[in-house]
Each structure stands twice: as structure tokens, then as C-alpha cells.
Design brief:
Layout lengths: L1 H23 L1 E7 L14 E7 L12 H13 L4 E8 L4 H5 L3 H17 L4 E6 L5 H20 L3 E6 L10 H4 L4 E4 L19 H13 L8 E6 L1 E4 L9 E4 H7 L7 E2 L4 E2 L3 H13 L4 E5 L13 H10 L1
Helix pairs in contact: 4-5, 9-10
């Protein structure tokens, strides 16, 4: 009888650990300020990021346009109950370069971001400075991360850093990133995003392994503080010789190829992540003890009740 009780207890303990792991696993989704996010299913997300808030040269915040403000208001209403962060900068932004060049600019920006979070009931900020291409800006980034960490953490708010392993990743130091509560790896745009690109999938499983290895070799070794980025879009190449391709929403790709026979459709030169690959990456992140996964970006998916939805694939992997 004791053996039966012991086995039952161990089985229940295993279930409890699995449930706890799923509950703490981040599923983060980005909501762009220039798109209609009203149809996003927030129920399967733990964290949400509104992109983007930008700096003025003196460190004050650039006000939202009327359209961006409406999108932000919808975001705040729909995301109630989730961990909500404001994303700073963005891929095409150059305002960080000017603002972060002075101590006064950095201090003012950190104070303004902290107050923005408090005023809007957000839980923190996501540093997405992607235009670092030299050692001077690398040093400014570290100085900015330090003051952002000090001011946000003093108010009980979180600081996240979102980084690539290509696209200037060599200029981000592990020392600077350790000011963040966790880092998010943008594991996409590895093909099709530049003129001399080879033909191929821009976000393979191998790219995930390479990104993690890149940051570990640079000294950021804590897997439990890494979030793996997942793309809800693909690239349509003009020829199989590669080159600059057209970025395409996943939901549009599905409309072209309703049966989704594979992650790649060679005949039409479209490369993307489908449900199988997205689920594999999510399961890997959960199994290996990563902090979670994040999505760029939420409006590109099918409705989550569709069997081909990528968010649905993530949710299934988290719950298994």
C-alpha cells in the first residue's frame, strides 16, 4: 500500500512541477502602434509589449500621434491583467543615438520612461535599441541600461533588453545586458532582409541554437534569463538566387497555401515558420529552461481558434 501511495505522490508532484513551469513560462507578444490590434487574442499571452515609444534628443518622450494613441488605448483596455511593457526605440529608430550620447539625456529619458509606466499602469520597459554600430554607442548603451535599471527598479518596474546576434549584436556587451531582468533574442531576419542575402528560411531552428551560443560566448550565460523570439511572418524571394525579399504576414501566406504542406514552398519561393516549427521551438525553450518565447508580431497571425494559428501552436506546446 505504501508503494502505491508513494507512486501516486510522485505522479502528483510531477504534475505540479509541470503546471508551475507552464505558469512561469513567458509567452510575450508585440503590438505595433501602426496596426489595428483589436482582434488580438490576449488570453494566451503572459506579457505584452506596445511598440514603440521614442526619445527626443534631450531625453523627453516623443508624443504619440493620434493614431498611435488610439492604438495604445485599445492595447491598455484589451491587455488588462497581463504584464504590460512599453517597447523603446525599434529597428528603424535613430533617436537613441542622440539622446544616449549625454548623461543628461540618458537620465532624463530614464525618468520619463519610468513616469510613463507609472502613469499608464505598465509593469516596465523593453529596451529595443537596434542601431548600435560602434564602440562609442556601445558604451552609451551600457550607460543608458545602468540608469534605466536604477530608475525603473527603484519603482518596482521591470527592464527588458531585446537584442539580435547579427545586425550589430557584437557591440552589445553582456555586462550591459545584465542590468536587464531578462533579454529577448530576435531570432529572425537571418535571410531575405538585405540585398546580398542567400535564399533560405530567415528563422530556422539552427538559428535559435546559434543565437543562444552567440550570447553565451559573449558572457551572458544564464539561459533562465533568455526569451526566444519567434516570427509570425516570412519572406517571399523573387528568385532562388536570394537577395532582398518581400516580408509577408503569416496569415497571408496561409491564404496562398491553405494546406501548408511544409515550412517552405520552393515553387513560390516563400520561406516562413509554420505551426510545426513554431511548436518545436517553443517546446525546446520550455524543455531547456529558457524564460519563455516572444512574438513579432501579434497582428500577423490567424485567429487563435484556427488550427493553423501560430499562437495556438505555442499555447499547445506550453501546456504539453
Amino acid at each position: 500500500m505504501r508503494t502505491i501511495y508513494t507512486i501516486t505522490f510522485l505522479l502528483l508532484l510531477g504534475c505540479t512541477k509541470s503546471s508551475a513551469q507552464a505558469a512561469s513560462f513567458i509567452v510575450g507578444g508585440y503590438v505595433p502602434s501602426w496596426k489595428d490590434g483589436a482582434a488580438i487574442d490576449y488570453s494566451k499571452l503572459t506579457h505584452v509589449f506596445f511598440a514603440f515609444l521614442k526619445a527626443r534628443p534631450d531625453g523627453s518622450l516623443l508624443s504619440f500621434t493620434d493614431e498611435e494613441q488610439r492604438a495604445f488605448d485599445v492595447f491598455k483596455t484589451r491587455s488588462a491583467g497581463k504584464v504590460r511593457l512599453i517597447s523603446l526605440g525599434g529597428g528603424s529608430d535613430t533617436s537613441m543615438l542622440i539622446m544616449a550620447a549625454t548623461a543628461a539625456g540618458r537620465t532624463a529619458f530614464a525618468a520619463a520612461c519610468t513616469q510613463f509606466c507609472l502613469d499608464n499602469q505598465l509593469q516596465g520597459a523593453d529596451m529595443d535599441w537596434e542601431q548600435i554600430r560602434d564602440n562609442t554607442n556601445a558604451a552609451n548603451f551600457e550607460a543608458l541600461m545602468k540608469v534605466m535599471s536604477e530608475q525603473l527598479h527603484a519603482k518596482g518596474l521591470q527592464l527588458v533588453a531585446t537584442v539580435a546576434h547579427g545586425w550589430g549584436g557584437e557591440y552589445y556587451s553582456a555586462r550591459a545586458l545584465k542590468y536587464a531582468d531578462w533579454i529577448q533574442l530576435m531570432v529572425y531576419d537571418q535571410a531575405g532582409a538585405w540585398a546580398a542575402s542567400p535564399y533560405g528560411n530567415h528563422a530556422t531552428f539552427q538559428h535559435v541554437l546559434e543565437a543562444v551560443d552567440f550570447w553565451k560566448r559573449k558572457g551572458y550565460t544564464k539561459t533562465a534569463n533568455m526569451v526566444i523570439g519567434l516570427p509570425f511572418y516570412g519572406y517571399k524571394f523573387k528568385t532562388d538566387a536570394g537577395g532582398l525579399a518581400d516580408q509577408v504576414n503569416y496569415k497571408d501566406i496561409v491564404s496562398w497555401f491553405p494546406f501548408l504542406p511544409a515550412e517552405t514552398n520552393e515553387h513560390n519561393l516563400v520561406q516562413f515558420n509554420g505551426p510545426v516549427l513554431i511548436k518545436e521551438k517553443t517546446a525546446y525553450a520550455k524543455r531547456k529552461g529558457f524564460k519563455g518565447v516572444m512574438i513579432w508580431e501579434m497582428t500577423q497571425d490567424l485567429p487563435s481558434d484556427n488550427p493553423k494559428s501560430l499562437l495556438r501552436a505555442i499555447d499547445e506546446a506550453v501546456k504539453e
